[in-house]
Design a protein that fits this description.
The protein is an alpha+beta fold. The chain contains eight helices and 15 strands.
């Protein structure tokens, strides 16, 4: 087995300022962020260096294809594909991740050392997050075609054994409950703008004279409690649309260019009857029942049933082909195509 992406292609991608890339050197440890010119990357077979490239699913079709192999895990948990290329001795030092990761050896060999130690304190004197007291418990050499799964917080260290050693890492998302709830609440608060009756002013004509003016009035508490129940803001299903919208947002560095998607609506409908429409590799699609969220937006809201069904199929199968019938110009599928979120 060999990598579907050559070292030359990876070095070229590392020179793109739209790509998150990092160069790590050992002995001594040093760290730098890209973009990198070819001459700033160590020459072949020079030891103790690693080049890391994030979000490769948006940069190369082979990387995007590999991510589809992991759809036995919910899309909401999938983060990205990182590729590391290194020469002998190259690595990033003993560390731990806060999320699940699958490590696929694509070319060359890499030695992995693993520990389930509880001490995860870091060395404060290094430019990288390297464990202070790493104690090896298990060791394996991965050859091309091998894969290693690491749960969160398992300490690990690895070094390349061969030149041009490529490891592809499929990472998963693990937001804090605080982040999920904050983002869901923020979007829920925004959605209250669409409820006209909430514009009504609070009134308390039956408020009696009080001996405790400093206390929050019972009438306010009672009326707000009633509103919360009326709007179902005391039930989790009310929060789920905002949470789903948040989890469907693309990564901040994702870039969509719809300028080449210049078909008219009529041409678009003809094209989709002949050729499959696909999500852009950096587009995120999530479903909440029959509601589909694409890149943070509910794309099934106020759409006809045929369009809603098309989005459901696209989210489930990551591909859509067939007749769209009499959809109109404000159709969300066509708008997503024009924005570059969907591609043929």
């Amino acid at each position: 087995m060999g990598s579907a992406i050559s070292p030359e292609e990876l070095f070229k991608i590392a020179g793109d300022d739209a790509v998150e890339s990092r160069l790590i050197k050992a002995k001594p440890w040093s760290f730098s962020n890209g973009p990198f010119k070819k001459k700033s990357i160590p020459p072949p077979e020079s030891p103790d260096w690693t080049l890391l490239l994030q979000d490769m699913e948006g940069r190369h079709p082979a990387a995007a294809k590999l991510l589809t192999w992991f759809r036995f895990i919910p899309d909401a948990r999938l983060d990205d594909l990182m590729i590391s290329i290194a020469d002998p001795g190259g690595g990033v030092g003993p560390h731990f991740d806060s999320y699940d990761v699958f490590l696929i050896q694509m070319s060359g060999r890499r030695r992995w050392r693993i520990s389930e130690q509880k001490d995860l304190s870091l060395n404060p004197n290094l430019p990288l997050k390297i464990l202070k007291n790493f104690k090896v418990e298990q060791e394996w050499d991965l050859e091309p075609g091998d894969m290693l799964y690491l749960p969160p917080h398992v300490a690990h260290d690895s070094i390349a054994l061969d030149g041009g050693c490529q490891t592809w890492s499929v990472g998963f998302r693990a937001q804090s409950y605080k982040e999920i709830l904050q983002e869901g609440l923020w979007r829920l608060a925004e959605s209250l703008e669409d409820i006209p009756e909430l514009e009504q002013r609070f009134a308390d004509p039956k408020q009696r004279a009080t001996h405790s003016p400093e206390q929050l009035p019972e009438e306010i508490i009672a009326q707000v409690t009633a509103k919360l129940k009326e709007l179902k803001l005391d039930r989790v299903e009310t929060f789920l649309p905002g949470i789903t919208a948040y989890l469907s947002e693309p990564k901040p560095q994702a870039f969509f260019d719809g300028s080449a998607n210049d078909l008219s609506l009529k041409e678009f409908k003809l094209q989709i009857s002949k050729q499959a429409l696909l999500p852009h590799p950096q587009t995120r699609l999530l479903a909440l029942g029959g509601r589909i969220y694409c890149n943070g937006e509910d794309v099934t809201k106020a759409q006809d049933k045929q369009t809603q069904a098309a989005w459901s199929k696209l989210a489930a199968k990551r591909s859509l082909k067939g007749s769209l019938g009499g959809i109109g110009a404000n159709n969300s599928l066509f708008e997503a195509y024009e924005a570059g979120w969907l591609v043929f």
